[in-house]
Write a structure and sequence with these properties.
The complex is a heterodimer.
Chain A (H helix, E strand, L loop, with lengths): L1 H21 L1 E7 L6 H11 L5 E2 L2 E9 L4 H15 L3 E4 L3 H14 L2 E4 L13 E3 L4 H14 L4 E7 L2 H17 L2 E8 L7 H9 L4 E5 L6 H9 L5 E4 L7 H6 L7 E4 L15 H15 L6 H21 L7 H13 L3 E3 L2 E3 L15 E6 L2 E4 L1
Parallel strand pairs in A: 1-3, 1-4, 4-5, 5-6, 7-8, 7-9, 9-10, 10-11
Antiparallel strand pairs in A: 2-3, 11-14, 12-13, 14-15
Helix pairs in contact in A: 2-11, 3-4, 5-6, 7-8, 11-12
Chain B lengths: L2 H32 L6 H16 L6 H24 L2 H25 L6 H24 L7 H23 L13 E4 L2 E4 H23 L1 H11 L1 H6 L4 H23 L9 H15 L5 H21 L4 H7 L1 H12 L7
Helix pairs in contact in B: 1-7, 1-8, 1-10, 1-11, 1-12, 2-5, 2-6, 2-10, 2-11, 3-4, 3-5, 4-5, 5-10, 7-8, 7-10, 11-12, 12-13
Classes of the chains: A alpha/beta, B mainly alpha.
Amino acid sequence: MKNKKTLLALAFTALTSTNALADIKIGVSLSLTGPGSGLGIPMQKQLQLFPKTIAGEKITLIVLDDATDPGKGSSNARRFVKEDKVDVIYGSSITAVAAAMTEITSEAGTTQVAGSPVGLPPGKDKWLFRLAQSNSVMAHALVEHMKKQGVKSVGFLGYTDAYGQQWLDAISPELDKAGIKLVGIERFARTDTSVTPQAIKLTSANPNAILVVASGSGAAMPQLGLVERGYKGKVYQTHAAATPDLSRLGGKSVEGTFVVSGPALLGDQLPDNHPSKKLALDFVQKFENEFGANSRNQFAGHAYDFQVAMEKAIPLALKKAKPGTAEFRSAIRDSLETMGRTVFAHGVMNWTPTDHWGYTIETGVMTKVVDGKFKVE
Amino acid sequence: MDFSIASILLLDGITNGAIYALLGLATVLVFTVTRVIFIPQGEFVAYGALTLAMLQSGKTPGTVWLLLILAFVAACIELIACWRHHHNVSRAVRSAFKILVFPLFISLTTIWVAPQMFPLWLQAIISVAIVTAFGPLIYRVAYQSLEDATPLVLLIVSVGVHFAMTGFGLLFFGAEGFRNPSFWDDRFAIGSVTLSGQAIIILISTLALIVMLWLYFERSLSGKALRATAVNRTGARLMGITSHTSGQLVFLMAALIGALSGLLIGPTTTMFYDSGFLIGLKGFVAAVIAGLASYPGALLGALVVGIIEAFGAFWASAFKEVIVFTLILPILLIRSLRSGHADEGH
């Protein structure tokens, strides 16, 4: 009798576990603690709203914290591919951590969708797709706006780090194409005590516009330095500066600044013909319903876009293979590459076999700081 | 470059140099008395500025909790050390209590003051008091038991203290930067140069602090005791000047100078939890120019650093820090050629 019971129980577990194998498993590694938690936590909140089923298949999310530590990120990735045998991985929210995970995911042949702009040499990113906008897409929108405003000469005031250099590399060819002259290139660091010397040099060249390349709360100081030196021309800022910190720290001095941004948080202001308007509105509404008014966050938007991508790619992959198999994992990769133009809350995506960044030039939105808020131009 | 640009750069360099001068003085002060190369000097700057920023937004600054934790740790260490030394419980409790009193008092005051939104100058005084209280506690916890160690060991401890303080700064203040309101908003035009009120405050405060330090070392008994310790530790000890007391006193002064520098620089730039390190390091370069021994030398060195930084940023902004920190190489070379002998272990 006792034996029979055990057998039954065994049979039951065997049945349920084969059932569980048929589920689609998604491994999520986010920086929920450490300096990157400001990005990871909103993404995790958005993932709580992830659908329970896609195309009739049950979805299981396995969320792990990587503590903003590349070592922890790669051990999470190893766990996902070895123990959990997940079908696709989302993460991480921080570039350095996501970059550390790519070695494991590409070796195991599991698709990794990163919420951060991971730079890998071409050819190395076969299994990696990015949800963050590349700088060149944003630079395009910025230069288009400069053209419309009749800007003929631009000064560059940017971080001495990789972000500043990437922007310089991204915008120089765009400016060349538009026939706008780059009259000065000056650098500074986030923790500098003064940008007076750089500001004097730039303003003495008297450009029509100055582009400040800085991030978060580091973006206000250089602009205050320019205003203090009596610069009256236009000031442009990059999408990393599109946070409330800009006017919190800059006050009146940053009024009228042009800031390029993704569309995800601006849904209610976008013109009706903007492709991302519907999704951006949907994202903000659902997120704020759950987490309170004004809780909208651009990083949560990337997690929302991950959901949009999965809802399109998984049904395509299911036609080719069964979840839990190596064929299904590579089918997801192929579907992401071939599913074509997809509208996200953060812009319009078009991943191809040669381009795993993928955002099209419809993505960048120009805003202007008016009364401390970002208004769509 | 014409005269007006040069004078603007000169002014910018001197204003920043004044801050470096204060930190350079503190570095020399700490080194001569305790032989500690105090790398975390700059952290006091960030702590001071950010504590004021937190008070400005009506929140209880995180430094209060850090101060309480540190005070309890220091008191426990004191209790155990004192008991092991004298085997007298009431004496041990008393000396531990003495360490605890001031931090506890200032923490409770701050917790009460924080939501009241007092005027700026009062909040500034409280911020300075909080950060100043850190000085002796850090000395008690990190350095006091290693007093007789070699300067190299003390330097390594300093590196550890620096990383700990930056980490706690991130934990308690967050990754965002803050900018404090200006103490004096007016601007004055002198020819082509506009002088901001804050720059005047920086220059005057630096001068005043230097004069006060000079008076303290020349005229007061405890100042003379510190000087005695700096000249000869063993000799000073024989005269009844304990190295514990002078160490804690000198760290108190270093923290005070750091906090004041934080208040001075807070309105001119955005401060982050890790901003202090580079500022402190430039003060250290100034102190090295002075051979870690001379106060007027440190002042002069700081002005040189500030001016070279300003002109370097004008000509080649991408290499600004490279220019400033490469400065240390020829100076070390000249100093070592001129002195000719190695003075190991002070």
